[in-house]
């Protein structure tokens, strides 16, 4: 009876691979866990350092300082509204444009594609853009969060490339059955583009959720249109510009010191508040995101 020889190569590879993946996971998760720990740690104690993945002195004062003003809640609703509305409209219109320029029978597809691509490399600058928004009567208007980003040149190219990989026979079959272009787009193209649409939706949603500069430029004078990121930016700026020294306040009272916040602790709490909604949405889009990122990597 022949003795079975144990091959060491698969065992060694599996072990080394597991160790590398574990180290990679630790390196990836540590910054978030550290920020989470700092956000729940007493602000004055955070200045001492030594906070890693577990708070040393637990407190909710950092989050109370973030939500103490009622403006944050209204700004939260505005951010959700702009993210949902802008993402859905941008996806629909960008995909419609991508499908149009992907059709070989469309005679103007090349000139239109060139014009759209040129917008990725050339722009008039911030001041002309501001006057354009003003002339469109979008200042202090909720539509300023939606209209300027309805069409994305980069996203259009990504979606058009994906549509180009679809079988042409599907579209021809639909035309034989009497379907028009809009019906083909709604019932054939959109369902087949779910992976790339989920990927683009994640990009657009994250960009909309994290945006605050457009609020600063175009809607800062109207408090009811303020977004969460803009309010958090103002809060962080206020904490960073504070001239008070927390280490010299409260006469060494431990309870008062525990209730104190510092720029570092406020920044950690703000980071968690701003990132949690995206972290909740991402797992539902992850499988589509992975497929979308592989777009163009395999050629048949």
Automatic annotation (TrEMBL):
Q: Does the keyword Lipid biosynthesis apply?
A: no
Subcellular location field: Cell membrane
Where's the ABC transmembrane type-1 domain? Answer: 76-285
Main location group? membrane
Keywords tagged on the record: Cell membrane, Membrane, Transmembrane, Transmembrane helix, Transport
What membrane topology does the UniProt entry give? Multi-pass membrane protein
* Membrane-spanning ranges: 12-33, 76-99, 111-131, 143-163, 184-206, 264-285
Any Pfam family hit:
BPD_transp_1
- PANTHER family, alphabetically? ABC TRANSPORTER PERMEASE PROTEIN MG189-RELATED-RELATED, POLYGALACTURONAN_RHAMNOGALACTURONAN TRANSPORT SYSTEM PERMEASE PROTEIN YTCP
Family assignment from sequence similarity: Belongs to the binding-protein-dependent transport system permease family.
Protein name (record)? Sugar ABC transporter permease
Source organism of the structure: Paenibacillus glycanilyticus
């Amino acid at each position: 009876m022949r003795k079975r020889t144990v091959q060491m190569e698969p065992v060694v590879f599996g072990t080394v691979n597991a160790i590398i993946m574990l180290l990679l996971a630790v390196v990836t998760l540590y910054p978030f866990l550290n920020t989470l720990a700092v956000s729940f740690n007493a602000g004055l104690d955070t200045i001492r350092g030594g906070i890693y993945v577990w708070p040393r002195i637990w407190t909710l004062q950092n989050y109370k300082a973030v939500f103490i003003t009622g403006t944050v809640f209204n700004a939260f609703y505005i951010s959700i509204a702009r993210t949902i509305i802008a993402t859905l409209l941008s996806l629909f219109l960008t995909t419609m444009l991508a499908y149009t320029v992907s059709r070989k029978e469309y005679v103007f597809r090349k000139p239109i594609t060139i014009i759209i691509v040129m917008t990725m490399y050339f722009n008039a600058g911030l001041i002309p853009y501001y006057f354009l928004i003003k002339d469109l009567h979008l200042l202090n208007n909720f539509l300023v969060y939606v209209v300027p980003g309805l069409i994305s040149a980069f996203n259009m190219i990504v979606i058009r490339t994906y549509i180009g990989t679809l079988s042409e026979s599907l579209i021809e079959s639909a035309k034989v059955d009497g379907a028009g272009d809009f019906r083909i787009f709604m019932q054939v193209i959109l369902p087949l583009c779910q992976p790339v649409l989920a990927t683009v939706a994640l990009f657009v949603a994250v960009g909309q959720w994290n945006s605050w500069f457009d609020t600063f430029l175009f809607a800062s004078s109207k408090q009811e249109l303020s977004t969460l990121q803009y309010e958090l930016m103002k809060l962080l700026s206020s904490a960073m510009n504070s001239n008070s020294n927390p280490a010299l306040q409260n006469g060494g009272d431990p309870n008062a010191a525990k209730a104190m916040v510092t720029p570092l602790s406020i920044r950690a709490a703000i980071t968690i508040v701003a990132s949690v909604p995206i972290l909740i949405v991402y797992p539902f889009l992850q499988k589509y995101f992975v497929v979308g990122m592989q777009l163009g990597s395999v050629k048949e």
